[in-house]
Amino acid sequence: MKSRRFIQCDVFSPFPLQGNGLAVVVDADGLSDEQMQRFAAWTNLAETTFLLPPTDPCADYKVRIFTPAREMLFAGHPTLGSCVSWLHTGGIPKTSGIVRQECGVGIVEIDITQDPIIYFAAPQTTIKEMDPSHRLEMINALGISKDAIVNTAELCNGPTWQFFELKSVTDVFAADASKVKWPTFKAIGLFAAHEPNSPCDYEVRMLAPSSGMSEDPITGSLNAAIAKWLLANDRLRDPYVAAQGTSIGRIGRVSVKRGKGDVAWIGGQVHIIIEGKMSNF
Known about the structure:
Layout: E1 4-11, E2 20-25, H1 33-43, E3 48-52, E4 61-66, E5 71-72, H2 76-88, E6 98-103, E7 106-111, E8 118-121, E9 126-128, H3 132-142, E10 149-156, E11 160-166, H4 169-174, E12 188-193, E13 202-207, E14 215-216, H5 220-232, E15 240-244, E16 252-258, E17 264-268, E18 270-278
Parallel strand pairs: 2-3, 4-6, 11-12, 13-15
Antiparallel strand pairs: 1-2, 1-18, 3-4, 4-5, 6-7, 7-8, 8-17, 9-10, 10-11, 12-13, 13-14, 15-16, 16-17
GO cellular component, one term: cytoplasm
Organism: Sheuella amnicola
Pfam family, one: PhzC-PhzF
């Protein structure tokens, strides 16, 4: 059987083992869909990625992203972790300073010039009104006071997010993640501003992920959707840092900044934790 290079890395934290773990199969060509899904279930991480030769001539590599239960079109921490793993194992981008990743939503550009933080360009995001009946169902399940809700929206950038902006970080922390489970509830994002002069500007939580966890440690794609929502509402004017994972003991940090036009860049650090080879697969 073919020997395949394998990496486990930690994404979106300045501190190793305090972000979101990712498994990366660097040499994934020849694996079937069923083998990829089975291996992702075996790693039991939020996501596992498989790197392949690109089919788009503009791309540097192609990535496929799997949770333990299903394939995803796009995800944030797998984008940064896959990019750093590809570079770590000898990948050389066609354009200096920019890696172009092919995935289920097309080509995603990754800026690697701002070490130790790398940034991906947030994919296009559709924004629409949240279904009122589903909104009420989530509010009741989580015990969120209607007075605590500032804005809601359904955001889609590959994954679909049920997004709640709340009045305070206290309101974000008060939500009980055990009350909402996938697939009855799907991908609930909570967001609120910290007090001025706090170490971070915003607090984010993502509940009911398809990974089967009660809460995702750090979610790049949710943060990307929020950034595009802020941009669409003329609220993404200055760079900011969002904290995530606080309620489950992680130190997630997501850096967000506006680019030219309608571009939002989503950044974080990546740490290579385990490196080796796979066999018998």
